[in-house]
Amino acid sequence: MGIWIGLGIVAVLFVVVLMWFMGMYNMLIRRRVDCDNGWSQIDVQLKRRHDLIPNLVETVKGYASHEKETLQGVIAARSQAVSVHDDSSKGVADQARAEGELTQALGRLFAVAEAYPDLKANQGFGQLQEELSSTENKISFSRQHYNDTVGRYETTRQVFPTNIIAGFFNFKPREYFELDSEAERAVPKVSFS
Amino acid sequence: MTDPAPSHLDELRKTLADDIRAYPGTLTYIDLIRKNKRQSMLLIGLMFILTAAVGALIAIAITIWVGVDTQRGQEVLVGAAAAGIVAGLLTALIMTLWSWSSGAGAILRMSGARQITPQDDPELFNVVDEMRIAAGLPMPSVYLVKDSAMNAFATGRDPEHAAVVITTGLREKLTRDELQGVIAHEMAHVRHLDIRFSMLMATMVGLIVFACDALLRVAWYSGGTGRSRRSSNSNASGAIVLLVLALVLAVIAPFLARVIQMAYSRQREYLADAGAVELTRNPQSLASALSKLAGDHEPLVDRANRGTAHLYIINPLRKMRSSGQSLNSMLSSHPPVKERIARLLALTR
Q1: Chain B neighbors of A149, CB-CB under 8 A
Q2: Does residue B123 have an active-site annotation?
Q3: Which helix (H) or strand (E) holds B29?
Q4: CB-nearest partner of A145 from B2, B123, B133
Q5: pLDDT tens digits, one per residue of B141-154
Q6: Does the beta carbon of B281 lie under 8 angstroms from any beta carbon of chain A?
Q7: In chain B, what residues touch A130 (CB-CB under 8 Å)?
Q8: Domain count within chain A
Q9: Is A143 among the domain residues?
Q10: CATH number, position A53
Q11: Which residue range forms the structural domain that includes residue A116?
């Protein structure tokens, strides 16, 4: 009789531990999937920006062709960002750095554009400006969301007792998508209103 | 894209200093989702109990009206009540399923909203897209209501079937930043699952009004003209009790529904404001939009009613006031908006 009770208790304990274990594991998986989804949202917006820039450069060229240096800067920053994006060996931090530089180059271009009333009056340019500034916002909002998901994942991964399971199944740390310097953070926002 | 703080907000900050200090803030949106799921279930349960009770009352009233034999009166009444309960539960089930599948569509039709495409208003779509990205949600459909009153709401059963609605008046009078604040508030409602609860609430308020009306009519007839010659004295007094009960219920039920709705609505609005700031990280844009909304005294005639009023960002049924234009007098006559702005500004201390 006693042995059966003992076995029963062990069995119940085993099931409880197993359930708990599964709960923790699934939580880690869910948080990691959230990070992946968050990252893909950023990715969509980065690609969108890369696609919009050639149009912008063409439009500006038509009105302000002698702003070569600024235009070259944008083209170079874009191709740098695209190559980092396509290079799978580069991580989140590299991408963030390249995109930060592209943001700065675009900021300079829009600042220069202020001096050309004809360009500013161009309807296509106006639309591109709204699209690019909105894409810029979307990048920063998707970055904000991605960093939130990474924050939750990292907390789950590092706190006791989930850290044991995370260590056992080799849940790797995730990088925040952070802008590099204070200077980049303070990039002058172009006002279109 | 941050505007410098408008000067009238600085004024507000001074007058509302105490309210601002009193604001806590420890909930996360995950707690809110859990709470809304639970309360939605409770609301459905309440709806079932209510319709079962009203169904039983109606069945008894009809039985008395038709008239029953004194010998078997008790049994017949119990049978009728059981049948009424079953009918009531079926009604509640049908209403819940209907609300789930097409409640949002009905609310949208009632508001006179028209769905728009990105080509109609690229900037509005961009703003909605930005906010749903910040919330990590799928893109909702966007609707416009042709009305010069400034208002907005969101509806749908879950984020995958959500719709965001704004009036043309709101679209025209807000800056891009303020619009972002309002859309963020609506996306917060979507994210918190307030939209599900609100939709069920709208259905329930409609059901209460309908059921009370039906009960009142049946009780009126059963207590009045159509009484059969075979009904006994006890049944006649039963009919009078029923009539009184129905009258009381018909008077207090809509009032009660309104009280519940108000209690529910206020807290959720505050939480959606906080959620909006979590998305935009800019409390001033929404505070500034709210002060503009509060300054607008035009009601949404024929588009909003008591059943749907709680969906809107600001009460659409407010009356015209004579002391309209000054911000301070507006605030004293409109405490919730004042309080909401105070809580928002508390975040920028």
Answers
A1: 136
A2: no
A3: helix B29-66
A4: B133
A5: 999 999 888 889 99
A6: yes
A7: 122-123, 126
A8: 1
A9: yes
A10: 1.20.1440.20
A11: 38-185
